[in-house]
Amino acid sequence: MAQLHLEGDHIVVRMGVFDTMLSVRSTIRVPLTSVVRVFVDPFVADEPRGFKAPGTHWPRLVTKGTFHAEGVKTFWNVWRGENPVVVELRDAKFDRLVIQQDNPEAIVEEITRALEALS
C-alpha cells in the first residue's frame, strides 16, 4: 500500500515495490500550498476512471496510476476502493490524488491541521 504523509511543507506519497510496478510511479511530492482540500470519500471508487496513462485498473479490485477523465488528471492508488483519502490540488502535476490508507481519518486530520497552520 502507498504511504501518504507529511514531510515538512509537502504531502508525499511513497509507493511500495508492487504499487510502483502497477502505477508506474514511485513517489509523488506536492507542496501544501497546492492543496485545495483533503477528505475521506468512501464512494470515490465508484467514479468512472477515464483513460489510464500509465496505470492499472481491474474493476472492483485495483486502480493504480494516472487517469484522465473530463479534463481532470487523477493519481489513484487503491485496492477494492477501501479507505480512500482524496486530495484536491491546484497548480500541481495532478488535479487529485486518491490514495488508500489504513487510517484515512487520521491522515486527513493531520493534513488539515498543517493547512490551518499555513493560514
Question: Can you give a write-up of this model?
Answer:
This protein has 119 residues and is α+β, with helices and mostly antiparallel strands. The strands form two sheets. Strands 4-8-9-7-6-5 form a six-stranded mixed β-sheet. A three-stranded antiparallel β-sheet has the order 1-2-3, with helices on one face. Helix content is 18%, strand content 47%. It has one domain (3-118).
Give a topology summary.
Blueprint: E1 3-7, E2 10-14, H1 17-23, E3 27-31, E4 35-40, E5 51-58, E6 62-69, E7 72-79, E8 84-89, E9 96-100, H2 104-118
Parallel strand pairs: 7-9
Antiparallel strand pairs: 1-2, 2-3, 4-8, 5-6, 6-7, 8-9
Tag the structure with descriptive keywords.
119 residues; 18% helix; 47% strand
Largest sheet entry: 6 strands, mixed
Radius of gyration (CA) equals: 13 Å
**How much of the polypeptide forms β-strand, as a percent range?**
over 45%
Shape: globular
Provide the helix percentage. Answer: 10-25%
> Largest sheet, order of strands side by side?
4-8-9-7-6-5
Number of strands: 9
What count of structural domains? Answer: 1
Please give the count of helices: 2
SSE string, helices as H and strands as E: EEHEEEEEEEH
Determine the mean pLDDT.
92
Return residue spans where pLDDT drops below 50 for at least 5 consecutive residues.
none
Alpha-beta content class: alpha+beta
N-C termini distance: 31 Å
